[in-house]
Predict the structure of Glycosyl transferase.
Amino acid sequence: MRILLVGEYSGFHNSLKHGLVQLGHEVTIVGDGDGFKRFPVDIEVGSSFFERSWFLHKVKVAWWKLTGKNLEDRLKLARFRESENKLKNYDIVQFINSNAFNCEPPVERKMIGFLLQHNEKSILIACGDDYEYSKYLTEEHDGYSILDATTMGEFQKKQLFHTYKYLGKGYKNNYLHLVDESLCVIPSNVDYSMALWNQPKATQIIPAAINCSKFELSLNEDLNTIEIFLGINRGNYWKKGIYYFEKALEIIKDKYGKRVGITIAESLPYQEYILSYKKAHILLDQVLCYDQGYNALEAMAQGKVVFSGGSAVYLKAHKLSAVPVIDAQPDVDYLVKKLSYLIEHPEVIISTGKAARAHILNYHDSVEIAKKYEKHYLNIG
């Protein structure tokens, strides 16, 4: 089959592409590379023009304030139009999200419309914020969530605008249009699946694919200093609950001194990010989640001990009795306790790291995950 994967977040579609290609399919990714992360795509529609200088960035911001329109969107649309002949006649067009190009709704709708018109079947992935997910979090969800920081004040609420914006009419209409046109909606993890309990087109969760051939077991067996890594992306700082990790690390540093090494990296391109935690024993991924994010899964593939989602909700959804992840909860004392145990029992770090890689090989291998997608491609419509 000819398959067009639309949009890229954190390597999600690149890893799935690897599996699909191994199965003999012709696969193309179109997207903007996910901003500063610069993930590879086959057809690039992103633009960094307005980030080349302080002046150009200010022009973009000023124009948006004056007109409500994003000049960068116009460049993306122009690049999309230039590539239209390469975006036709696929058997499957799969959208990573209802806002896969990260444009304002009117511009996004033009791209969506073209892709739906000129390709055979479409599938929507529940991966990242969208209308149904945002609606669920604001109206139904009980428990901690990515919106918890809104209780801290107006500043935090403004920082979480990215999630709330999907409740707007344009984003809502684009989402509902894509759901209506798509043959199914596939949730990529528990967090997104929870919001789809009443969605008739929702399938069972298909876990994120990991290209395991890219990663080797990379255990740091020098346990004299326990290396802890925290990666920060300011764009999702509040929704991931990074502030809990920061507070916990302050306590750990005072408590253990030179027994620990703490590395904090901020807003790195993907390739630099992967290299920056190579010597880490422990990786702190995110707190306000119920499943593992993509960074967590790739770190687990390398044998790192990861703090991320791994609660009873996760275990039940995936029909597992245990998972080699430290379930990160929004409780600083709890996080300190879990970190302290690992620092004081370093042998657990090695055994957990090995189990983490085995888990990824068993449940997230890109070829096996691609087979699950392939069944939907072949059996639906």
In short: The chain is about 45% helix and 15% strand. The chain has two domains: 2-209+366-379, 212-363.
